[in-house]
Every structure is written in structure tokens, then in C-alpha cells.
Amino acid sequence: MRAKSSSSPSSSSSFIRPDFGIPARKYFADHGEHARVLLLDDLEWHYKDDRQAVFDRYCQVFDTLLTAEQRHRAAVFFFVMMLEAYYFADPETLCAVLQLDKIPEHLRDIDVETAIRHPKNELKGVMRARGRSFDEKADGLRVIEQLVVERALAHPERCASLRTLFRWCADALDLPADVRSRLLDGALCPVTGSQLRNYTVSD
């Protein structure tokens, strides 16, 4: 599920609507003991220094509304600064889908989670420079459907938040060690990483 937060940055720990907890509890009730719930939210620029507070507030809702056993199967993760950042982590797919010859120099070979303040605006600018528009839903869906995660996570020091999300999924699915090492070795988010199996700060 995707959470929706207020656009006001004035209160990082109180802006979150708690109404996602009830659907999560119902999902567990309807889908049995093997169900998992992931809450995903964009961690936009104005919240970048409040990641822990935002994370704690989301977790508090789960802690309050879920049983201890259900809580073990629920997790909170962030797209940093927003989902569209990861399009630039796989420029080959982005260019192919949007029919671009290349992306601007300042958007190449970077950690997309830390170097792009507003990824969606960057995409719109890239398309506008070519006399076209970027359709967040239609174009975004096509990029996501073809995005190669292995390329997005190819640099072990980059995309720590995304890698942490996929590592949690790998733990939940008990993926083989060779798949995990190929995809998931590298930097992890110290905040959301606390939800991982056998996680330590040094990971």
C-alpha cells in the first residue's frame, strides 16, 4: 500500500494519517498467516532530515493496530525522494521507454536517492526540452514495468533505501543466497534496515 502524507513540512511526526492501519489489519485477516504488508511512501526533500520521525510514526500505527505476530509481517519503507528517482537509476530503460537519446549529464552516474531533489520535475524538464510532456501515470507505468532492478542496484554504495526494501522482500520469500548476493549486497538504510532479519548497523 502507498501512504499519503500532507504536503506541509512543519510537523514531521504528526502529519501522517493513521487510516492505513485498519486496511492492513483487514488484509491480514482476509489473507491468512502467510500474508505480508508493505507500506511505501515517498520521502520527499522537505522530510529528508526527519526520516526517523516519519518512520517511527508509521510504525506506531502498525504497533497499535496489529497483533505482535502480524506486526512481524508488516514493514515500512521509503522511496527517496520519490518513486520517479529510480527511473534514473536505470537510464537504459528510461531512454528506451521515453524514446530519449540520452539523459542530461547532471542526472547520470549518481546516487538517485541523494542527488536529485525533485525527480518528477526533472523528468518533466527532460521531456519538455524535447517538445513533449511526461505523463506520470501512463509513462511512469511503462518505465516501472520494464525497469531492471539489477541495474538500479548495480552500484553497492547507491540506492540504500531501495536495496533495503528488496532485502526485506528477499527475507520474506527466502530467496536463494546467490540471488541475494547478486542483487542485495551493498549499502542499506539505517532507519528502515532495523526491520531486516539479522541486520546490524555495519551491514
Structure report:
With 203 residues, the chain is mostly helical. It has three domains: 1-80, no CATH class; 83-152, no CATH class; 155-203, no CATH class. The chain is 43% helix and 7% strand. It has helices at residues 21-31, 51-65, 68-71, 91-98, 112-115, 119-128, 138-146, 149-152, 160-173, 177-184, and strands at residues 37-43, 74-80. The chain has a two-stranded parallel sheet with strand order 1-2. Helix 1 crosses helix 2 and helix 4 (91-98) packs across helix 7. The protein is globular.
Summary?
With about 200 residues, the protein is mostly helical. It is about 45% helix and about 5% strand.
Keywords:
3 domains, mainly alpha, single chain, globular, about 200 residues, two-stranded parallel ribbon
Q: Which runs of at least 5 residues are low in confidence (pLDDT < 50)?
A: 6-14
Mean pLDDT, nearest integer? Answer: 91
Q: How many strands in all? A: 2
Shape: globular
**Helical amount:** 40-55%
Ends apart, CA distance between termini: 27 Å
Largest sheet: 2 strands, parallel
| Class based on secondary structure composition and strand pairing | mainly alpha
How are the strands of the largest sheet arranged? 1-2
**How many structural domains in the coordinates?**
3
Computed Rg: 18 Å
Number of helices: 10
Spell the H/E element sequence. HEHHEHHHHHHH
The assembly state of the depicted protein chains is: single chain
Q: Provide the β-strand percentage band.
A: 5-15%
